[in-house]
Every structure is written in C-alpha cells, then in structure tokens.
C-alpha cells in the first residue's frame, strides 16, 4: 500500500502499516521537501512527489525521489490519503483514474467514499470497497465507546460535549490562543451525524468547543441507557475493549499532559495513545444515565483504524481477527498495573 501525504496522520499510518506482517508499505508521498523527508529516509521509505509539478523542488533540495504519485498508485493495491482536510476529495479523481482503491480520513466529507469506517462499529461495509473514509479522531472515539454500550445495554440517547484541542503541537497557525470557544456555536455539531455514519441507529447529540491546548481532545459523555446496569458492570464492559484504556484513579493521571507522559514512559512511538482514555473513577450511573470523561489523542487513535480498513478492503479477514492482528503488532491495549486488576503498588516489580 502507499501513503499519500506523509504528515501527522500519514507518517503514523506508514509506520503502523510497515509493522504489519501481512502488509507492504511501497512508499509515501510528500508535497514539499521539508523535515518530513528525513523521517521517511531514516525509516527507509521510498519517497514520491505528491504533486508532480513540484518534483523539481526535491531535486533542488538534494532529495531523491522514487517517482511521482501516479507511479506510486500504479504500484500499490490501496492508497491511504492523508492529505490536509478537503484535499483528499481533490485527489479522489486521480485514484479513480489509476483504478487504485483509496482510504480517506475524517477531514473529508462522508460523500467522498462508499462508506465510513470504524473497526468496532462498521467493518464489513468496507469489504471490497473502492473508497472508504476512516472517521475523524473524535468520531472514532465516540464510535468505540457507544458500540459496546448499545450492544450490551441499548442506548436511548447519548449527549456528548467535546472540548477539542485547538490544533496539533506542531501547528503554529491555529488556536484559539486565549479563549475557549464554541466551535461550532451551532448545536448539534457535525460529530453526532458523523457517528451515525458508523452507528446509524444510535441517537447522539454533540456540542463542540475548541480550547487553547494541543495534546488531546476531552469528551464529557452522558448516555441514557435502555437498562440500568451497575457502574462496575459498565467498567468491566469497557475494560474488555482493547481500544479503550481505563485510567485508574490510583495512577494519579489528571489530564492530557500526564497521559502523554504515561504513554511516552510506556515506550509508545511519539508518545502516541491509540486508545480512548476513560477516567475510571468518572464512570458513574444515576438510574439509567451513564456519565464518564474520556480523552482522545487526535494524532493517534485513527491509526489502527486505517490498518483495519486496509484489511477490510483488500482481504477476507474478519473484524475481530484484523483488530487482534493490528493490536498485537502495534501493542494497542494499554493497561495500568495500578488499576483494579493490577497488584497493589508495593507488588510492582521491575518486570511490570
Ligand atoms: N491531525 C489530527 O488531529 C487528525 C487529522 N485527521 C485527518 O487526517 C487528514 C490529514 O491530517 P493531518 O495529518 O493532520 O495533516 P497534515 O497537514 O499534518 O499532513 C498533511 C500532509 O499532506 C501533504 N500534502 C499537501 N498537499 C497534498 C496533496 N495535494 N496530496 C498529498 N499530500 C499533500 C502535506 O505536505 C502534509 O505532509 C485530514 O483529513 C485530517 O482531517 C484525522 C484525525 C486526526
Ligand atoms: O481532523 C481533525 O482535527 P483537525 O481537522 O482539527 O486537525 C480531528 O479528527 C478532529 O476533527 P473533528 O473535530 O471534526 O472530529
């Protein structure tokens, strides 16, 4: 496969694909010879020009290219478009002209693809598809959370407030810098309808804000269930989801900064958190109303989803097997030894 747009998401998808024993990363494209080309070179990834007219910039910078986007498309069985929001839609005709199946990201309108994708909530719809859209980081996290809740208890209505990061750490042109703003000010935000692209029968209203942070998004979740389980049962249900990390109270992790530190200390590449991060002590029930907080690492949570989308499009591997392979290969499934299932702190050993 190939990655068109070796940026925040593209470089992570490239690494995740390269780690799969049943996939081959043929190469990646860059639009310009900036510092990203060094990352690709260090990893031995063949580099292609995303925009043919700009190939000369690479030669001028002394950067060797294997070819152009068209050459890459003719060499792969699927391309993962990781261009900036809205650019993927413009790339789509090129993929069609080369008869190359394509995976798009959540910054594109749902109409760019035959189906939206989330491995937990909507896998089979991508089987053999020519165009698939992996939903955005927020929608990915909401789909992962609501799917097991709806399957197990039934969701009467979900209401989610999203406090979104203003931009990624490397994005100096975004904000807000000194405010928390409704964004969009209209309610509901696009996230609810986007979740319905994955879980069409789940009633979900979302309201979104933007905050002057870069690390992660935070969701304040309320779900009215159709039955009234006890919090421990909900906790156990979510604990069984490999792509949900239950953050134990004992760990003293109080926000995105500590979560990213925890991930880096755990040896995660770039300190990435592929999982939803649900504060365990936030899981509470008032009658049939479930409440919890979760954080979402926007740069990372869609990465395993892209790997699974490739398998759904190009193989007959089922959802569970694909997720198991992806999770095993990447090491998805963070569990703290300080959690309820872990030993008491004193028993932690160097082997933990
Ligand atoms: N960064 C995030 O938090 C998340 C982003 N996404 C989505 O992933 C997609 C990519 O976003 P990012 O990686 O953040 O963007 P980015 O700006 O970090 O990377 C985009 C890359 O595409 C390259 N590019 C520019 N024009 C291109 C073209 N015509 N063809 C191919 N590549 C081109 C750029 O040089 C850059 O390397 C967007 O749809 C975005 O909405 C999804 C989840 C989270
Ligand atoms: O694409 C994303 O971030 P960005 O476009 O704000 O960089 C994330 O997936 C968040 O998008 P969303 O807030 O539409 O879910």
From TrEMBL:
EC number: 1.2.1.59
SUPFAM superfamilies named among the record's database cross-references: Glyceraldehyde-3-phosphate dehydrogenase-like, C-terminal domain, NAD(P)-binding Rossmann-fold domains
Assembly, per entry: Homotetramer.
The protein, known as: Glyceraldehyde-3-phosphate dehydrogenase
Residues that bind NAD(+): 8-9, 107, 165, 298
Glyceraldehyde 3-phosphate dehydrogenase NAD(P) binding domain segment(s): 1-137
Enzyme class: oxidoreductase
Keywords: Cytoplasm, Glycolysis, NAD, NADP, Oxidoreductase
Protein source organism: Halorubrum coriense DSM 10284
Swiss-Prot/TrEMBL GO biological process terms: glycolytic process
């Amino acid at each position: 496969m190939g990655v068109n747009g070796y940026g925040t998401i593209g470089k992570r998808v490239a690494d995740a694909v390269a780690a799969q024993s049943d996939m081959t990363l043929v190469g990646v494209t860059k639009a310009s010879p900036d510092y990203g080309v060094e990352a690709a070179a260090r990893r031995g990834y063949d580099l292609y020009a995303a925009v043919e007219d700009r190939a000369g910039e690479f030669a001028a910078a002394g950067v060797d290219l294997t070819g152009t986007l068209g050459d890459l498309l003719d060499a792969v069985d699927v391309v993962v478009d990781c261009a900036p929001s809205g650019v993927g839609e413009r790339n789509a005709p090129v993929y069609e002209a080369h008869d190359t199946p394509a995976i798009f990201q959540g910054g594109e309108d749902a109409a760019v693809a035959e189906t939206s994708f989330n491995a937990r909530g909507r896998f089979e719809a991508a089987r053999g598809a020519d165009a698939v859209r992996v939903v955005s980081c927020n929608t990915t996290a909401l789909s992962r959370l609501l799917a097991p809740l709806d399957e197990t208890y039934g969701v009467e209505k979900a209401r989610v407030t999203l406090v979104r990061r203003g931009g990624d750490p490397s994005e100096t042109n975004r904000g807000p810098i000194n405010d928390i703003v409704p964004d969009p000010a209209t309610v509901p935000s696009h996230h609810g309808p986007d979740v319905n692209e994955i879980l069409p029968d789940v009633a979900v209203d979302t309201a979104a804000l933007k905050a002057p942070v870069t690390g992660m998004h935070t969701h304040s979740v309320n779900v009215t269930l159709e039955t009234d389980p006890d919090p421990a049962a909900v906790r156990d249900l979510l604990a069984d989801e490999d792509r949900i990390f239950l953050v134990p109270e004992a760990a003293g992790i109080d926000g995105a900064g500590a979560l990213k530190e925890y991930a880096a200390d755990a040896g995660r590449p770039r300190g990435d958190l592929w999982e939803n991060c649900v504060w365990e002590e936030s899981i509470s029930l008032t009658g049939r109303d479930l409440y919890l907080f979760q954080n979402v690492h926007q740069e990372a949570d869609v990465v395993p989803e892209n790997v699974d989308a490739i398998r759904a499009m190009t193989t007959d591997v089922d959802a569970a097997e694909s997720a198991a392979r992806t999770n095993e290969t990447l090491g998805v499934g963070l569990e703290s030894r300080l959690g309820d299932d872990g030993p008491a702190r004193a028993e932690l050993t160097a082997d933990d």
